[in-house]
Amino acid sequence: MGRTTGTLFMVATPIGNLSDASARMVSTLKEVALIAAEDTRHSQPLLNYFGITTPLCSLHEHNEQSQSVQLIEKLLHGESIAVISDAGTPGISDPGQVLVNLAHQHGIPVCPIPGANAAISLMSVSGLKEGQFLFVGFLPSKNQEKTALLDNLKVAPYATVFYEAPHRIKATIKTLCEVFGERRQVVLGRELTKLFEEVHRTTLKDARDWLDHSPHRLKGEYVVIIEGLAIDAATLDITRHDKLLTALTEKLSLSDAVKLAVTITGEKKNFLYERALLLTSP
Ligand code: SAM
Description:
There is one protein chain. By secondary structure, the chain is of the alpha/beta class. The chain folds into three domains: 8-116, Tetrapyrrole methylase, N-terminal domain (Cobalt-precorrin-4 Transmethylase, domain 1), CATH 3.40.1010; 119-229, 2-Layer Sandwich (Methyltransferase, Cobalt-precorrin-4 Transmethylase, Domain 2); 232-280. Helices cover 41% and strands 17% of the residues. It is built from eleven helices and ten strands. The chain has helices spanning 23-31, 40-49, 64-76, 97-105, 118-124, 143-153, 169-180, 204-212, 241-251, 254-265, 269-280, and strands at 8-11, 34-37, 56-58, 81-84, 110-113, 133-138, 159-164, 185-190, 198-203, 222-226. It has a five-stranded parallel sheet, with helices on both faces. It has a five-stranded mixed sheet with strand order 6-7-10-8-9. Helix 9 (241-251) runs antiparallel to helix 10 (254-265) and helix 10 packs across helix 11 (269-280). The chain is elongated, with a radius of gyration of 23 Å. The mean pLDDT is 93. The chain binds S-adenosylmethionine.
């Protein structure tokens, strides 16, 4: 007779406010055989607070491959395991997906225990277009990769969500301003769910002044959302090239606008370029 495997639970924990913990978070963490935590010392106060005495092991970016193999062995032997990260939902810009991927390969059931997430929290108070968004997480640290990624994102019709460290927030807003243009709306979420929470919506140009306004704004954790490129359905009608080009050249450089118009309409580049020149000349 085959042995029943355990279940792998991906358990969200609060991102700063313990009252955001769910009853299911607590019961799951109490019931599993083992909790795999990103940083066991960091998670201990949370577990103490809720009277959770389940054994802990570590699962972080430096041991994720080897530790995941060992955890799969335990799951195959019938032990259930919960993964938690330092804050929020594990596997989202946090360790856990290597283990989840292996669990799927071994037919081990994977169960989400939903809860706090910094990106979704800020998106819910952004007021941006029906909550549609692209989640990027942290930007690449290498400049070339960063610029290439942002260059693709600037024409996306959806809001884009980034995570950023406080020591890089000013430089990142400057880069976003250069790539997306000063007029694009941005939503900054600082220290969400914590005592000094701030949610501020403005233009990328004014975001720089807002950050400079007080030194404490260069501390704390940030989520940044940039509004998507606004193109309405009528504008997307490929027979109305002029309207499309007018909308695009308002937000983008001439060459970027033409490039995007070529992709959308399938028209010849030279034709669209000439139209765009005509439309933008004073
Ligand atoms: N897994 C987490 C989640 O579900 O949101 C994200 C982990 S990621 C390593 C950490 C980043 O999330 C921080 O650098 C910051 O950008 C963002 N973050 C986490 N907590 C936050 C908070 N309370 N307020 C604003 N941003 C936060």
